[in-house]
Amino acid sequence: MRYVFHPDALREYSETAKYYKKISPELGKACVDEVEKSIRIILSSPETWRPIDDDIRRYLLHRFPYGIYYTIEDDYILIIAVMHLSRKPGYWKNRVSAA
Q1: DSSP three-state, residue 30
Q2: Which domains are delineated in the chain?
Q3: Which H or E run contains 4?
């Protein structure tokens, strides 16, 4: 199965990686590695994480305070948000209808 980022989710991911890279190149790499590992885990078993809102599911990163919000489409996973967990909940909901 493949995955696709919503454009805003891709922007969030990029900004997150840049933020941690400014702190330390090693930390930036660790962040990217964890997000990529998390996506592989999601792809291997996308229905493992229960829906939190309609058909939106959330995978929590272990080392960083982020969640990957996604939906299971017919032939791909749509990543809706790479959200910092202290951010306003639900800000990404308008992305679902726009996708």
Answers
A1: helix
A2: 2-98 (3.30.2310.20)
A3: strand 2-5
